[in-house]
């Protein structure tokens, strides 16, 4: 499965520069806050503290963890690849659909099994396998109550990976604290989405101190600029509050646009910052929107879905107004 | 071998903050130029072009390469680990002393052989093995004429890794262009040293297009801030000229300080921005300097050297003045 965010390719198709494309395919927080951090010679030129203590301290505080329970990587993708390489277990059960990185990280190294969580969520993984669950899920944005599944996984002695990268938009309950009671649990956390920083490459794994020690993150794998930026942003409580307020308002608006349009047969309830719909003329609609420099996510590359499904990220006032206009003017 | 740059640990020993330590252990260009790049929301929030085309174009221009001959990693360390993992050959010959990353990248995965390049450089590596040579070398800063060795390696059908991370201070001849004629050659290049950006995590491998394709760098492994910074700096010809002018003057000054001091039995000729010396009372001198908040590199962790050897990086006017004072006032 390909990642959806290649706006550079789509901008070419739309015959415009990448920044001219309104990108509803990318699930980045729509709240705009200019970074205040100054780029200085001192920051750029020095070797960072290779264990990134100060940043870990802020993350620990934000997520009610200990610094020793955090491993940092240059992006969640790097975290996923490292984690799956470190884990000895051969059998991996992916609850699909989910994004493609997990599958890619397993290719040629693990025996891969796919569980269709939409139609057959009760299918049991094999004993002592690795299970991967993204919660809230993508591309639907469903927040699953995982208690029952978790009990099954524990009974099966599974190594459990829960990816909570889309959790923060609506402050949903996390499985983080369970790393204290179940020793084979790993939480993957991307800071990119909620903290509006896809260009900043920092992702985390949360697990027991013992597991984190085993992970042995590479030396100096993070940019000092990224570290300084994320530290500042995590400390900014205003950013979180304002983001969530804007998210609530804009999601309500997007939902209303999609539900009032007659172009969609189904609009899926979401607990995060994107909404999945089934469109009547998805192919034509996608092309029409792209020709008008508005990119949405076609979901045919997700397991168990087709290109009839489109995913819209929650965006700002201006972008959603443009979407509304375009949908109203669409005719076959 | 440990990396030398943990100023955080030494600052603690010197009872001061890391920024209060004058760091002669770290081989970073001493020319100070404040970055002019503004940190913007647009830069931070968007996914970068995952193939980093614009940066590769600038690198290609600077180093007389094609973009297709460049693989980019979040630091030279990541490049070294990836390269050694990709290469199937089991036997690795390291020309030592060299920094520790190569050995670490081989541990548990390769059969490691050490060639003492100071006393026994003519020892031949086994057929079809991997050879690693850092040129200019560290910790001495010797620039080797590698033509003869290269011929031996080719005859032995070796896979050749030449690390040219310290080459740019004195504009020395590179082996880069040979990637066009010998298909098993990889050049490792760190931008950290000459471009004065240890906090910016970008390193490169230069090789044939075919080899670069095989390397398959991870998706979005670079920080957009780092990319923007390095792009700006590589385009800045003034930075290079001013750096080299300052380097020449300061290196001459450092050499004079070290040669005129009676504390050293040997001062090694260097072709880059650090100078290796053998000190009469190295342990005491190291401790005395550290107590005075000046850190130098003890070389006992390098193969075939002891802590009698100290390495001094070329630093700015103020720092070298302080070094001179401290050396003059040292008494046992």
Tally of helical segments of chain A? 11
Shape of chain A: globular
Over the alpha carbons, how many angstroms does the gyration radius of chain A reach? 20 Å
Cα(first) to Cα(last) distance of chain A is: 30 Å
Low-confidence stretches of chain A: none
User: How does the helix and strand content of chain A classify structurally?
Assistant: alpha/beta
Number of extended strands of chain A: 13
Beta-strand residue percentage of chain A: 15-25%
**Strands across the major sheet of chain A, in which order?**
2-8-7-6-5-3-4
Q: H/E order of the elements of chain A? A: HEHHEHEHEEHEEEHHHEEHEEEH
- The percentage helix of chain A is 25-40%
Largest sheet of chain A, in brief, is: 7 strands, mixed
- Assembly state of the chains shown: homodimer
Of all chain pairs, the largest interface belongs to: A-B, 49 and 49 residues
Calculate the mean pLDDT score of chain A and round it: 95
